[in-house]
Amino acid sequence: MDLLEDDTPGRNEPEYTVSEISGAVKRTIEGEFGRVRIKGEVGRVMVARSGHVYLDLKDDRAVLASIIWKGQAAKLAVQPEEGMEVVAIGKLTTFPGQSKYQMVIEDIRPAGVGALMAMLEKRKKALEAEGLFDPARKKPIPYLPEIIGVVTSPQGAVIRDILHRLRDRFPRKVLIWPVAVQGEGCAPQVTAAIEGFNAMTPGGSLPRPDLIIVARGGGSIEDLWGFNEESVARAAAASDIPLISAVGHETDTTLIDYVSDIRAPTPTAAAEIAVPVRLDLLAAVDSYGARMAQALSGMVGARKQRLTDLSRALPRASELTQTARQRFDLAGGRLDASLKAGTATKRLSFEKAASPLRPSILARQTERMTARLTQTAGRLHTALDRRAERSRAQFDHVSGGLSLKGIQRDLGLQRDRLGRTTRTASQAGCIQVKSWRDQMEKLDRLRETLGYQATLERGYAVVWDGDKVVTNSTQAQKVTTLEVQFKDARIPVGAAAKAAPKPKPLKPGQPSLFDD
User: What residue spans carry the region label Disordered (predicted)?
Assistant: First the structure.
C-alpha cells in the first residue's frame, strides 16, 4: 500500500442539522396533506392541566397521536371518549421535540348514530352504577307549586304549549330560564339553568321555584344530544328542587329522563303533571263541603236524640239531694249541745293543769337552777386555769429552743452558703470575660488579615493623593503630588520627591520609615 493512498470513500451526501431536518419534515407533511378528515376509534384520552386534550386515533393496524387545543376543546359539541368511533377534522403536523407526527384536531364528531348510541349506553351504565337512577332518591312533586321554573328555548312552541296548558288547568307564576336546546351551547346552558334555579333564595326578590320543568320538542338523536351530556344529568340529579324532564316526544329517551324525578312524554304532559285542574278542585271542594255539612247535621241530630234518651233515665234533682238535706238538719240540731259539752270539758282540763303551778313550787325550782349554775361556774374557772397552765408550759418549751447560739449557728451556715455562691459567680464571670477576650483577639487578627496592610506585606503598594487613594491613570495625571506607600514607608514620587528629601510622615496607624 502506498503511504499517500487514502482508502476513505468520497462523501457527497448533503449535511443537515437536527433542526433543519425536523423543519423540512414538518413543511413536507403540512404541505402535502393540509386539512384532512380521518375516521377511527378513540384510544387513550388525557386532559392536561393546561386544558389541552391529548388522544390517540387508531384502527386495527396503526395509531395516530392527536391533540385538541384548550380553546377548541371547549367548543366541541361532543367530547371524545375512549372506544368512541369518530370522524376527526384537522391538519397533520410534526412535534420535533419527540420526533413524531401528529394531528391537530379542529372538530370531532361521532361516526354515525351507532357511535352515539354506544357512547350513550356507556354513560348510562356509569351513572346507573353510581346510583343516580335509583327510584329511592327521587323526590315527590309538590301537589300545587306556587312558582314553576321552566328551562327551555323562549322562541319555540314548547314554552307556549306549557304556558297555555298551565293557564287552562291552574294559573301559576312561571320563571323562564332561556337556553339553547341543541348545539354546542345546549349542555352548559341547561346545566347552568338547573344550578341557577337551585341557587336562588326562597322568598327573595326573585323567588326560588318549587318545581323545575326541563322541556324541548322532538328531534333526532343529534339534536337531543345536549340532554345526554353527563354535566346535565349530574345537575338534574343534584337538584334540591323536584324536576320534571319533558325532552322530545314519547319515544325519545335521554339521560336526563333517567335522573329526573318524573319523566313526562311531552312538554304539555309536563304541565299537566305539574298542576291539577282548578275547576275539578273547586267541584271536589264543593262536594266535600256538602258531604261535610250533611254528615255534621246527621251527627248533631244523633247526639241530640241520644242525650234525650239518657235524660229520661236520670232521677229528679230534688230526689238526689233529699237524703243529704235530712242529714244536714240532724247535724245542725246536735251542734249546740256539742259546743256546750266541749267547752265544759276544756275548762275542767285547764283547772287540773293550773292547780300545781304555785309560787312556792316556782321558788324551789329557781333555787335548784341557781345552785346548778354556781356549780357549773366553779368547774369552768378550774378548767380555764388548767388550760392556761398547759399553754404557758408549751410556750416555755418553744422559747427554750430559740437560743442565741442556735441563731448564730444558722447565720454562720447562711454566711458559708453566700461565700460559696459568690466564689462560683466570680469564677463564671472570669471564664466569660476570658471567652470574650479570646473572641476579641480572634476578630482583631481577622481584621489585620483582611486589612490592606497585609496586602502591602506581600509586595503591593498604594498610591495616594493627599488623603485620597489614586486607583487609575486618569486620576494620576490630574494630580500634582503623588505618594507611594510600601509596607514600611510612604514616599513621594515625581517633582514632589525632589522637593521633599525626606519621606512624608504617615498618619496615625500607618507604617513609617522611622518605625522599628
Answer: 495-516
pLDDT category, 147, cuts 50, 70, 90?
very high
Contacts of 213 (CB under 8 A, 6+ apart): 148, 149, 150, 151, 152, 162, 243, 244, 246, 264, 267, 270, 271, 274
Torsion of the alpha carbons at 16, 17, 23 and 27, rounded to the nearest 10: 0
Beta bridge partners of 46: 54
Residues 204 and 236: beta-carbon distance below 8 Å = no
Q: 416-473: per-residue pLDDT in tens? A: 988 899 899 889 989 998 889 888 888 888 877 777 777 777 777 888 887 788 888 7
> Which of 219, 237, 124 shows the shortest CA–CA distance to 181?
219
Q: What is the pTM of this model?
A: 0.44
- The pLDDT score that the predictor gives to residue 177 is 94
Q: What pLDDT is attached to residue 8?
A: 52
Residue 121: the pLDDT is 81
Q: Which domains does the chain have, with CATH numbers?
A: 18-111 (2.40.50.140), 117-276 (3.40.50.2300)
Q: What is the dihedral of CA 68, 74, 77, 79, to 10 degrees?
A: 60
What's the mean pLDDT when you consider all of the chain? Answer: 83
Q: What share of the chain is helix, strand, coil (3-state, %, to 5)?
A: 55, 15, 30
- Picking from 57, 46, 130, 131, the residue whose alpha carbon sits closest to that of residue 92 is 57
Confidence of residue 512 (pLDDT cuts 50, 70, 90): very low
Residues 6+ apart with CB under 8 A from 210: 142, 145, 146, 147, 148, 241, 242
Give the C-alpha separation, 143 to 459, whole Å. Answer: 107
